[in-house]
RNA sequence: GCGGUCGUAGCUCAAUUUGGUUAGAGCACUCCCCUGUCACGGGAGAGGCUGCCGGUUCAAGUCCGGUCGACCGCGCCA
């Protein structure tokens, strides 16, 4: 097989015989003349069989939409009257000499040349591999790669290193509901999948890594929304020896450069990003993630906004205290005294900073509470008895007593960011294999029952429904 | 867990206010015609358990109850 040429590069091969591989996008059979629009990951091109190639005509009449072909052909300049200015390869076409069918395709379950967002989503999710062939979904996936690549390169230059943290970890009582995994070797015991790498990344600061990041998958067993999935991706980062301004600065710079580099058509409404307190945001916009866009119809307008000075604690329905954002956050310096004395609890503000974009919360972080005494107070206020603190957070308190530097960080919701950048109405459009609102994968048919043998091996017996 | 919207051909939809002949259309699909199309065009054809179960009625896609599923939102989501 000779070397395959990408469709986007065909313009460099005018007058030459080449080989292209791809899918049949559209076929137009005109009897003596057959046109086949071919598509690969780089673009599309019109291929034509001329009447004098009798064998190729027969082959071309056989092929159908979405068949996978390898075509040998001659790259020709189009006659002037047939030039299409506005499309890729509108000035050339491939004269087909020979077609090899690499794979046939049954009629696809829905057409991908129109906006597939108009197709029932359960059908799209069942045949996701077909849906992903559409131009729009290809762009969403490929731009997501570009964004992640940019983030990795940017943070690498800023001396961050990417570190993986465990997926099989431990359930903690606070926070979201955990997905759990039975531990075969320890009947009755379970791992939990991480809701975020929060504790690990803080312990990496104890470990002297100083600047960490991770494109981290997180799992939360809660009901979904248009901007929430059971598993999602965070850009998680943490830095040592920093204050709030340091973390916000590097993230703001990253976000601005990312938009300018990868989305040059987009305009950031205000630089530096405006900041407001939680109190202001609630009073003026009745939201802790205000949409500050001056023109909400403009698809290329990005209005970032930092929200700061959140209350540390709030009352639960039962009347006890719980944290609003993150139990590991440090209170503002001037409120540390209140925390240590457990007084004026409702007035304690945290170092928490959230980043809002066009009305979505796309990031949140804080300076952490690296003093074991102060962290103990947080748990005491929330009513954890000393034994429970010891049991669940002993490793954190111990680490903080063994030389943990002051540190802070942030986590971005990467899916939400991509949703906004790609002008998509929900998060599923930027997640390749998304789940339904009921947490099902319609393509894989998960979740699913497991065999009696598997259950036995895990020492699990099921209650009757 | 709760509320709302929806479910008719492979896909997108129609079948009206008020239950009434054989459930229609566009796209896709199959076959035929077509030498410059590019969402080609023209002709013919096939394709339906109206999500599922039950009820009301002489008669149900249509009304009622239940159920399943998708989406949106609330609760929930450090």
Distinct helical segment count: 12
Termini distance?
Answer: 58 Å
Largest sheet: 8 strands, mixed
- The strand line-up of the biggest sheet is 6-9-10-19-18-17-14-12
Portion of residues in helices? Answer: 25-40%
Count of beta strands: 19
Structural class category:
alpha+beta
* Low-pLDDT regions: none
Question: How many structural domains in the coordinates?
Answer: 2
Question: What is the CATH C-level name of the largest domain?
Answer: Alpha Beta
For the CA atoms, what is the radius of gyration?
28 Å
Strand content: 15-25%
The CATH topology name of the largest domain reads BirA Bifunctional Protein, domain 2
The CATH architecture of the largest domain is 2-Layer Sandwich
What is the overall shape? elongated
CATH fourth-tier homologous superfamily of the largest domain: Bira Bifunctional Protein, Domain 2
């Amino acid at each position: 097989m000779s070397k395959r040429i990408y469709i986007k590069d065909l313009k460099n091969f005018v007058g030459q015989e080449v080989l292209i591989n791809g899918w049949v996008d559209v076929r137009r059979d005109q009897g003596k003349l057959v046109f086949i629009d071919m598509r690969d990951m780089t673009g599309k091109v019109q291929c034509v069989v001329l009447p004098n190639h009798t064998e190729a005509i027969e082959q071309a009449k056989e092929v159908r939409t979405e068949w996978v072909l390898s075509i040998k052909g001659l790259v020709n300049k189009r006659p002037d009257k047939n030039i299409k200015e506005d499309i890729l390869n509108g000035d050339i076409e491939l004269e087909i000499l020979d077609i090899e069918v690499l794979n046939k395709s049954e009629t696809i379950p829905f057409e991908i040349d129109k906006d597939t967002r108009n197709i029932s989503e359960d059908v799209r999710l069942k045949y996701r591999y077909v849906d992903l062939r559409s131009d729009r979904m290809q762009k969403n996936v490929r731009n997501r790669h570009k964004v992640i690549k940019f983030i990795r390169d940017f943070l690498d230059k800023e001396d961050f290193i990417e570190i993986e943290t465990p997926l099989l970890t431990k359930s903690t009582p606070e926070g979201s509901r955990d997905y759990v995994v039975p531990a075969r070797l320890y009947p009755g015991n379970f791992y939990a999948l991480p809701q975020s790498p929060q504790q690990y990344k803080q312990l990496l600061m104890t470990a002297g890594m100083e600047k960490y990041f991770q494109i981290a998958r997180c799992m939360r067993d809660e009901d979904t929304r248009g901007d929430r999935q059971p598993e999602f991706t965070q850009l998680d980062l943490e830095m040592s020896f920093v204050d709030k301004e340091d973390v916000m600065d590097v993230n703001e710079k990253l976000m601005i450069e990312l938009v300018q580099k990868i989305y040059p058509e987009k305009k950031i409404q205000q630089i530096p990003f405006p900041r407001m307190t939680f109190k202001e945001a609630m009073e003026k916009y009745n939201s802790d993630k205000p949409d500050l866009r001056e023109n909400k119809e403009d698809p290329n307008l990005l209005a970032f906004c930092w929200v700061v000075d959140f209350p540390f604690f709030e009352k639960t329905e039962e009347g006890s205290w719980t944290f609003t954002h993150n139990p590991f956050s440090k209170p503002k310096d001037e409120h540390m005294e209140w925390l240590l004395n457990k007084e004026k609890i409702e007035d304690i503000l945290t170092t928490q900073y959230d980043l809002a974009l066009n009305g979505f919360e796309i990031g949140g972080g804080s300076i952490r509470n690296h003093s074991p005494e102060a962290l103990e107070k947080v748990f005491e206020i929330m009513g954890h008895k000393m034994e429970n603190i010891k049991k669940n957070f002993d490793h954190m308190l111990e680490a903080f007593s063994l030389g943990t530097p002051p540190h802070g960080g942030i986590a971005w919701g990467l899916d939400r960011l991509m949703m906004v950048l790609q002008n998509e109405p929900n998060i599923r459009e930027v997640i390749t294999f998304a789940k339904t609102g009921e947490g099902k994968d319609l393509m894989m048919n998960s979740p699913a029952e497991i065999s009696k043998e598997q259950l036995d091996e895990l020492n699990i017996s099921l209650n009757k429904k």
